Amino acid sequence: MDYEKSMKRCIELAKMGYGNVSPNPLVGCVVYDSFGNLLSEGYHKKYGQNHAERDALLKLEPYQTIGGTLVVNLEPCSHYGKTPPCADLIIQYGIKRVVIGMRDVNPIVAGNGIKKLKDAGIEIIEGVLEKECRYLNEIFIKNMLKNQLFIAIKTASTLDGKIAAYNGSSKWITSECARSEVKVIRNMYDAIITSSSTVIADNPSMGHKCNIIIDRNLKTLQNDYKIYKNKRVIVFYDEQIELSESDICAEFVKAPLNGGTIDLEFVFNKLYAIGLKSVLIEAGGHLNGSALEFTDKIYHFIAPKILGDNFGLSCFNFRRADNINLCNRFHIENIKTFEPDILLTYYPIDND
Fold first, then answer.
1. Catalytic: which of 4, 12, 41, 53?
2. Which of 67, 217, 289, 330 qualifies as a FRET site for 297, CA 20 to 30 Å off?
3. Strand-pair partners of 98
4. What is the pLDDT of residues 291-321, one digit of tens each?
5. How would DSSP label each residue in 62-99?
6. Based on the number of CB atoms within 10 Å of its own CB, is 348 exposed (0-12), middle (13-18) or buried (19 or more)?
7. What 8-state DSSP symbol labels residue 160?
8. How many angstroms separate the CA atoms of 289 and 321, rounded?
9. How many whole angstroms separate alpha carbon 329 and alpha carbon 348?
10. Which regions of the chain does DSSP assign to beta strands (E)?
11. Which residues touch 348 (CB under 8 Å, ≥6 apart)?
């Protein structure tokens, strides 16, 4: 049996849960009979519903899986949560071999699922495409190991790093194909963060289940902006400002300042405290740059265009540096093409 091929299928299945399983991890599962024939597939569809292993096994009768193999990208759970332990069901179904992509980093599981399976005489094969499996659940891993919010930035620029002309003109830098991919990326995250400057300049709808605005002086309350039509909007503003009555339906959170701007560390800690596990920042160069020290991942779309404007707005325009060695350093993990644009996905080296 080609375990790597089977694990790739688990990853594909797991991705179908994007946007629906948080705070749980993304998990996919495939089940084979004792002869290596595919019997069933499953994935974790929604938080609170069946885990991937249970989703796959309950489509079958136990006699079908005796002596069979189960492949899953994350260690099966061994405890009672929203659903019973998957390890118990695997044993009940007479599975002979379990192939696992990575161990669960949740301290409640962390090797206990594997131990339970081994104690039942099941053969365990670990670490198949482990890097890819960890990449898939990077949000869950940071949440579990650091108890912190996962923070990503999405930006789009010309070849010379411009996100808009000097007057704010920015529609459109990238193609429709690239913009369609942005919708896919947004769905991976619990919330989108933007700035009051972006709301005022572009009047974006965002259209996400949770939208967050950094608006120190509550400037966005002065007009009927599209973003406020979304189901949930959270606004962080200067704690020294008196909030007057407004017809706008939003959650307003007072925040301290740091260097004259809203303290982003406070914002990120507050969002994690209220239950969000990941955010995607879509804003201008100042907020993008200010968030770099906290950022885990960057999606950077680049269009094959050159604006050539010294006064054009840049995607990370947040400081004046007099030494090239002050550059923030990253490693590029992936390059994809969305004709005619490209998407660079990169990570801060210091966060490795």
1. 53
2. 217
3. 70, 124
4. 999 999 999 999 999 999 888 889 998 888 8
5. HHHHTT-EEEEEEPPP-S-SSS--HHHHHHHTT--EEE
6. middle
7. T
8. 13
9. 6
10. 28-32, 38-43, 69-74, 97-102, 123-125, 150-157, 162-164, 191-195, 211-214, 233-238, 251-255, 257-258, 261-262, 278-281, 297-302, 313-314, 330-338, 341-348
11. 292, 295, 296, 328, 329, 330
Is 53 marked active-site?
Answer: yes
CA 305, CA 309: separation in Å to the nearest integer? 12
Q: Rounded to an integer, what distance in angstroms lies between the CA atom of residue 75 and that of residue 98?
A: 9
User: 306 with 165: CB under 8 angstroms?
Assistant: no
Q: How far apart are CA 303 and CA 319, in angstroms?
A: 24
**Token digits for 8?**
């790739």
> 292-312: string of b/e by CB count within 10 Å (b at 16+)?
bebbbbbbbbbbeeebeeeeb
Contact criterion met (CB below 8 Å) for 140 and 18: no
Using one digit for the tens of pLDDT, what is the confidence trace for 32-71? 999 999 999 999 999 999 999 999 999 999 999 999 999 9
Q: Cα–Cα distances in Å, from 269 out to 101, 131, 151, 175?
A: 31, 28, 11, 35
- Coil vs helix vs strand at 206: coil
Record the tokens describing residue 9, joined without a space: 């299928």
If you count them, how many residues does the chain have?
352
What are the C-alpha distances in Å from 216 to residues 194, 203, 211, 213, 249? 12, 17, 16, 9, 18
Distance CA 30, CA 329 (A): 39
41 forms beta bridges with: 30
**Where do we find the tokens 């292993």?**
53
What secondary structure letter does DSSP report for 156? E
- Supply the pTM of this predicted model: 0.92
- Residue 43 gets which letter from DSSP? E
